[in-house]
């Protein structure tokens, strides 16, 4: 089979786990080459995301030992999502398909075989989906569940329990790279690419070595990034809140007016409180209108493709 597969592995301070995972990845790659599912040109590409430890030295040494290893190094830390895009960008010209996988072996390397099979069956995108999250802490599991349900409510199409373990065909990669946005949230962007897709289920394991590079703070900012990159629902929320407050203001004013007629009020107080609610509501609504325009500008500047053509009769 002459499918040239590149496995892209983002690495940030992974000196502890890299000697283990690089070996397992190579064993797997050679097995796939042996089985003639991929070509002997296939490679494992490490993307060193500005590590401060010996990660890059390990990558260089690996590439000297075996031609199936290759790597690129960032000048500083740019983050996981940027590392993935860099890997896709540099592998795309010479790869038929690209798999992205974390360096820590939490994702099951062996399920890449099913991904390759699904690719040969004509799928352009194959999502790795966790069958269970037993290896995560209860807290991480709950927050993840909450996150997916919020995203769904906001109308953002995501594959639940899928992180960044996936296979992309050449054309799916090219299309994804057409999305020029700066704020990357790949697991929300990939479904927008379209094309035939499939899912492969696997059991997510513990980290083989080292520590998570996603502490709570980074996780929360990543979740917020996901919401604000894909939805202007928070602006709509402010608008609805403004309308609600305005209605309360109007009802309150009517009530005061009634009390005034019966002469049963402290002078000055009610008109001040009434104006606070009325003006508060009007201001909030105005803010959300400005926000709507900013939301429009935001989607404009992203310059996402307006359409993606899968087939054209003329090309036959
Ligand atoms: N990673 C990266 N840059 C960063 C943080 C993480 O390239 O700034 C890589 C890391 O080396 C690993 C992957 O992203 O290969 C996922 O990180 P991690 O396993 O620490 O996250 P978790 O699985 O705990 O969510
Ligand atoms: Mg991990």
Automatic annotation (TrEMBL):
One of its GO terms (cellular component) is plasma membrane. Gene3D superfamilies: Spore Coat Polysaccharide Biosynthesis Protein SpsA, Chain A. Pfam families: Glycos_transf_2. Its main location: membrane. InterPro entries: Glyco_trans_2-like, Glycosyltransferase_2, Nucleotide-diphossugar_trans. This is Glycosyltransferase 2-like domain-containing protein. Keywords: Glycosyltransferase, Membrane, Transferase, Transmembrane, Transmembrane helix. CDD domains: DPM1_like_bac (cd04187). The keyword Transmembrane helix applies. The chain crosses the membrane at residues 237-257, 269-294. GO terms for molecular function: glycosyltransferase activity. Residues 6-174 form the Glycosyltransferase 2-like domain. It is found in: Membrane. It is a multi-pass membrane protein.
């Amino acid at each position: 089979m002459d499918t040239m597969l590149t496995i892209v592995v983002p690495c940030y301070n992974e000196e502890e786990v890299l000697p283990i995972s690089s070996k397992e990845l190579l064993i797997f790659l050679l097995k796939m080459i042996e089985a003639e599912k991929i070509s002997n040109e296939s490679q494992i590409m490490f993307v060193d995301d500005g590590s401060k430890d010996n990660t890059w030295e390990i990558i260089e040494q690996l590439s000297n030992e075996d031609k199936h290893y290759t790597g690129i190094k960032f000048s500083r830390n740019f983050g996981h999502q940027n590392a993935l895009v860099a890997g896709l960008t540099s592998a795309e010209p010479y790869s038929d398909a690209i798999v992205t996988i974390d360096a820590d072996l939490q994702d099951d390397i062996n399920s890449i075989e099913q991904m390759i099979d699904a690719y040969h069956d004509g799928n352009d995108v194959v999502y790795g989906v966790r069958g269970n999250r037993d290896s995560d802490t209860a807290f991480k599991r709950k927050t993840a569940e909450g996150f997916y349900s919020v995203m769904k409510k906001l109308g953002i199409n995501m594959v639940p329990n899928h992180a960044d373990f996936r296979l992309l065909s050449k054309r799916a990669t090219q299309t994804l790279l057409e999305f020029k946005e700066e704020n990357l949230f790949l697991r929300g962007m990939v479904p927008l690419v379209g094309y035939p897709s499939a899912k492969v289920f696997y059991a997510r394991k513990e980290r083989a070595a080292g520590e998570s590079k996603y502490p709570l703070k980074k996780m929360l900012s990543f979740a917020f990034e996901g919401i604000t990159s894909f939805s202007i629902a928070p602006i709509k929320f402010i608008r609805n809140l403004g309308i609600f407050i305005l209605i309360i203001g109007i009802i309150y004013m009517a009530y005061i007016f009634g009390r005034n007629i019966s002469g049963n009020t402290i002078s000055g107080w009610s008109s001040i409180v009434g104006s606070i609610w009325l003006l508060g509501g009007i201001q909030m609504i105005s803010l959300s209108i400005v926000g709507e325009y900013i939301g429009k500008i935001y989607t404009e500047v992203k310059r996402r493709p307006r359409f993606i053509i899968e087939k054209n009769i003329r090309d036959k």
